[in-house]
Amino acid sequence: MKAALIFTAALLAAPAVWGQAANPETPLAALPYSPSLDLSSMDRSADPCADFYRYACGSWIKNNPIPPDQARWNVYSRLTNENQRFLWGILEQAARPSPSRNAVEAQIGDYFYACMDEASRERDGAAPLRPELDAIAALKSIRDVALFLAQTHATTFGNQILFGFDSGQDYADSSRVIAFVAAGGLGLPDRDYYVKTDAKSQEIRQKYLEHIETILKLLGEPAPQGKTDAAIVMAIETALANASLTRVDQRDPHKLFHPFDLAKLQGLTPSFPWRPYFAARQMNQVPRINVTEPAFFQELQAQLKVRNLEDWKTYLRWQVTHARASSLSSAFVTANFDFYNRYLRGVVAMPPLWKRCVQRVDRDLGEALGQVFVAKTFGADTKRRTVAMTKEIEAAMQSEIEQLPWMGSATKRRALEKLHAVANKIGYPDRWRDYSSIQVRRDDYFGNVERAVKFENQRQLAKIGKPLDRSEWQMTPPTVNAYYDAQMNDINFPAGVLQPPLYDPKIDDAPNYGNTGATIGHELTHGFDDEGRQFDAKGNLKDWWTMQDALEFSKRAACVSDQYSQYTVIDEIKINGKLTLGEDVADLGGTFLAYLAWKSATKNQNLQLADGLTPDQRFFIGMAQWACGDERPENKRMNAITNPHSPDEYRINGVVSNMPEFGKAFACRAGQPMVRAQQCRVW
Ligand SMILES: [Zn+2]
User: Fold this and answer.
1) Please, which residues have CB within 8 angstroms of residue 15's CB and are 6 or more apart in sequence?
2) CB 588 within 8 A of CB 646
3) Residue 491 C-alpha to ligand 1 middle, in angstroms?
4) 0.85 cut: is pTM over it?
5) Three-state DSSP state, 228
6) Which of 155, 432, 532, 610 is the most buried (most CB within 10 A)?
7) What is the per-residue DSSP string for 528-591?
8) pLDDT averaged over the chain?
9) Cα–ligand 1 centroid distance for 583 (angstroms)
10) What spacing in Å lies between the alpha carbon of 327 and ligand 1's midpoint?
């Protein structure tokens, strides 16, 4: 169970229109520097007490229009893009056959080379899919379907065709790794897309039907058949969607924890032969299985009863092609892009091929590429300083908990125990993953992807029944993001997020604490948000709160949820304050913690005015400037459904308007927009 700072939807993208762009991007030999407090990003004509986000970020937004290949563009995505251009240079170099390449360089270089070879993919068309399509055509029973799924799941990224099978920590005992069988099977980004009845949702479903038809046509299906088949796919997916939990429900870990044994799982879905499925995935022993959503599998059973085999073949033909589209020829890649990125997210142009290939190497061989990135960018000094800052934030949280007026001493003791048990992971893993068993060929991109994904899926399943590896990371080192994992009880900051303009070694403490300090505080607070607080110091789903304290917490969380639910995302759509609650609580708590830690770290310093700004003002501007940015209207609509984070402007204005420290720093008056009448405070 992870909670990330910003959420990057791994939507599949596709070929190059960028070539004609006015400013074609080039590889970067070094990462560019911009400070974590940038005066030129501000709009000083704006009143900080009326709209602080505009004051801190107005000029950044004006000067940084969303590039054609992006759905949103902010400080995080710009830095991500710079990292990718830097990695591009590394990969271009590594792709040149040379005796001086070491094994890691040869592997990532050849992977990149094969990905860049679009001509081969054009020649191959749908041919790489042929073995799977033939296998689908030859299915004769549901047992065959199960065996086919086992093979296909093993080589499919995301592992979600019809349902998901993976490993995960036991909610009852986080030291144990058990099997997870999870809901899946949808082609739209969320179950809500299938069940909502408004005009826009109906339009999206119509476009989705057309997209399925387009893909099936590329496989050679004649149009009338494609239409019938798309309707079958839609009917199956709609039934599964109706039985799937909402994203809000999925934030409740109790709703996702249903330990079954094999017999009980078999009883839930008598028509699906689980034993042969598990055996085909080399899992002969699965004594304990968390069936995350039993209602989903009940519906799956109902569908298996009423649908004939031909319907399942149709569904699988679509799902398998959908899953592999981004590794096929440009016709598939473009169709995929046109629906998922152009239509659903408003992206104007396909990202250039190099960018898609860098993303693919990062996804599939991330710790190989990451080693090279870390060696070139993340010095021991940055590591030492960011580790020290993390400890400062933790110390601030300790003193906050000790002084918390609404929490009793028994709960405080447990909260401190949990805080002290948090593991800090900074920069990169202690031990690099060994990918050497993956065969990478310069002339077989489709095969490379399958082999790399198979390696990863097998690696995940191999954990079942083994001792938990606490050193593992869920993000690669170049990633500009961070996360807290409630079952690991750890906070994780990849090297990519600890560089300017986020963590800035060249600048003083005020903006650094405001920016990176608040991010560290954000992740730490996740351990104590409405979701994270349900896990104990060891990462077990176990209530450690007195009833009274839990009640007091809920009251304060409701204040935040009510506040954010009033903000408009776009048009008639408001923030779903129950979906974003954990992130909103973390944003608020994180900023308080960073502020306190900064005050404590600088208590003996004589802080001075700089650029006409007080130290407190500079703290808050630094805090706001990680979030400068904008996104396309279509992307806002999608995020309102799928993203647990509030839009960037509310992540800033929603926080500062709750902080008396902010009002004081900018001499705001009661009644102004950035001074909420009833200020929320949880941590
Ligand atoms: Zn978060």
Assistant:
1) 118, 330, 333, 334, 350, 353
2) no
3) 11
4) yes
5) helix
6) 532
7) TSTTGGGB-TTS-B---S-HHHHHHHHHHHHHHHHHHHTSEEETTEEP-TTTSHHHHHHHHHHH
8) 95
9) 5
10) 31
